[in-house]
């Protein structure tokens, strides 16, 4: 249960660089210009290895969402360097950034963010449309992904015909379909009841067991505890980084 | 091809959201339809006005009483005392450049006790200006009358076809019966001439209402001599002349002028006007109509364009979140732009075509429903302009805001509800 301030704390990870999915160094994000600037991230360095399940926690306004956006390539850092899946991505912009996002990150949102007019299958195919995958291949992989999340019977259903848990499963299938280096989930159970939440977290557990690198942003302690590492953000910095959550088997978390 | 995949996806998106698609297209449909309908109907009105003038015939020369230079104004002056006689008409008709000539002596009369406007004309009138008859023939001699369609209805109780062959008592008054005066009053004060029996030999075909031609077709015809007897006058109000051809109009005009001048002892107490001169008087009206129509087209285009702008802006604003989702899933700005461009082009094209169809359809239908409205005339350039401008506005306002949303960082776009 060591709690390390990790601005320089990831140096130890350098020896295992080949296994690192995320290597961020001194990431900063400043909003606004001139005098009215807000420093949302004051310099965050962190390393996440392949297969890890990291929970990102912190109070509102802590910079937790900002960090998630930077790590998910939804936004660009003001400063610092960021290596994702072996690629230096902090300098990317425009189309290159979009393509890196497409290839490296799979998103799961609190409000699912499925396209309402499209079927589950079409929603899952969407990232592959942008990856320029052929029609048959798209169909095959989307069907597989939906089977993987337990929705093989709901391929042609539209989001309005699905329950919240089912919509989130579609979103997870969509996030996985391009084989991302990182599955990034923002409050994935925030809109779900506790039973459905448990089902979704079990699904994350299965994905974790199959080697998917997962980062879950949450403010719910039960959700955070499911991961094998919890990073807490406060005031734009990493406040705590617990290698393994309480209650988790030491051997299981021992991979770090 | 990725482009085709994105286009196919855009198409599926449009079809998958039929209501939104229809509403977006509706702005363009209405914009284009209103421009097309308004300009086409307006063109129809303009063409109808100038058509009615041309319909009088290209070879027509009219001789009216009064000198054009007398008061500097137009020759058509109701108060002018006419000096034109049936003899003038006969002289004019004998000219080599003249095909036919007819007097026109207008008078009021009482037919079967009812006030009727009569035109006293020569049998050759039918050659100068074709009179369409519903039944029977044109007047050829004294004691014959050709009833206007309205008069025949008035006199024979809605059965104008049965009028031919019947006889009617016709009595004149010293002066024309003023229009609108109740027949009883007019009868009391003005019926001075003896009543004679006239045979109805023909009925004029009914004309569409509201035109200039209608005024001419609303009168009943008798011979010039009968009309002069009824009115007690010796002069005719007008001489209508048909030249032998369009090229002979100038020669006819000069010949007519010198012929009548000679007969009137060298006095220029009449005016000879060709159809062209008459037309130029009316061209001012059509010019103003044209300016008016351009104004209508411009305003319709503006209103239609603003409508299109609105609906496209709202539609794109609604989809900012969708744009954010697509970008989060790896769409580039170009991918998003391509999809919205394709959607906007398709919407604008289909909406524009539907608008043209609706505009053309309503322009055809409205004159049928509203009998006073002349048939629409379609100008392809105006239709193309309406289509082009509306489509351009639709595409521009479908794509520019979409592009702005696409350039937002995905987090920004995702934050919008």
TrEMBL record, chain A:
PROSITE patterns: ABC_TRANSPORTER_1, ABC_TRANSPORTER_2. It comes from the Bacteria. One of its GO terms (cellular component) is plasma membrane. It holds the Pfam family ABC_tran. Gene3D superfamilies: P-loop containing nucleotide triphosphate hydrolases. Residues 237-256 are annotated as: Disordered. InterPro entries: AAA+_ATPase (IPR003593), ABC_transporter-like_ATP-bd (IPR003439), ABC_transporter-like_CS (IPR017871), ABC_transpr_LolD-like (IPR015854), MacB-like_ATP-bd (IPR017911), P-loop_NTPase (IPR027417). One of its GO terms (molecular function) is ATP binding. Keywords: ATP-binding, Nucleotide-binding, Transport. Residues 22-252 form the ABC transporter domain. This is ATP-binding cassette domain-containing protein. It comes from Rubrobacter marinus.
From TrEMBL, chain B:
Residues 170-194 are annotated as: Disordered. Residues 296-409 form the ABC3 transporter permease C-terminal domain. InterPro entries: ABC3_permease_C (IPR003838), MacB_PCD (IPR025857), Macrolide_Exporter_MacB (IPR050250). It is a multi-pass membrane protein. One of its GO terms (cellular component) is plasma membrane. It is found in: Cell membrane. It comes from the Bacteria. Coiled coil: none annotated. GO terms for molecular function: transmembrane transporter activity. The chain crosses the membrane at residues 21-42, 291-316, 337-370, 376-400. It holds the Pfam family MacB_PCD. Keywords: Cell membrane, Membrane, Transmembrane, Transmembrane helix. Residues 21-256 form the MacB-like periplasmic core domain. The keyword Transmembrane applies. The keyword Transmembrane applies. Belongs to the ABC-4 integral membrane protein family. This is FtsX-like permease family protein. It comes from Rubrobacter marinus. The lineage of its organism: Bacteria, Bacillati, Actinomycetota, Rubrobacteria, Rubrobacterales.
